[in-house]
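Quick start: read one record
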Amino acid sequence: MLDFKLFLDPVILTIIAFFIFVVGYFITRVKYINTSLVFLTNVLRSFKKGNIVYRFKELDDIFSNNIFISNYWIEFKNTLVFNEGSTIGNEKLKGINQDTSSIQCTIDSGYFFNEETLINSKLNYKFISAVPTILTGLGPLFTFLHISLAFSRVDFSTQEATITSISSLLASMKVAAMISVVAVGTSILFIILERLLYKNMCKTPLNAFQLEMNKLFDSITSEKFLVELLKESKIQNNSLNNAFTTIPAQMKSAFDKSFKETLVPYLDNLIFSVNKLQENIKKQGSQGILDDLFGSDESEE
């Protein structure tokens, strides 16, 4: 029969208290991660790839103000390429991948939003991973400590003392064995609990979040982006070269048009007036022309 009084031993109670504390801490962190991932996934589901470029400011405000993801979101945002007045960070570009999705990322979103960044870093996973080892290690530690203390109290001086010491030693051995059982049992129980909660409350919501993120932002490799950027640069260079080639011809055409429409009629009128003046001089003489222009002194009197 199992003696439940053994569980009242201070060492066993300490191991059980540590187990309860760790389980409570783990469940609290898992619930926080689960709630945050579900909320962020629902936010992403409210956006569509077709309108994300117009509603990006709304998404940016939500994610930038969310403590759970803000640091990784800011880093991810700097890798985005916007096709509508394309930008990388604060740099504006045009004409890159106009035939694909509205916003692309030059680095895959999984680099920023993954198991390490959104789960393990929030969970203090190194400590959680070490808990089974700690619990298992407490078993042999306190078991051998208990046994050593029990042997130190053995007294063979008299027959009565020997009998009493042996009885105490056997009771201590029973407690020592129970310490190892409790330590190993709690360790196994924690491993099972940790695996189930981690998968169902952390890994599954993370996969859903990553799926929604990939639906909104297509990934474009840096090499492909540089090739397209080079292509766009060549197109712009050709446009500039064509502009510089046509500018002299356009200037000549504009000058010829201005000369023909403005200066030539003016010169024609000027020549006509000079010819008319010469004809009048021949007919009336220079004095008559001057009289017509300024009037004679006799007419003024």
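The chain is about 75% helix and 5% strand.
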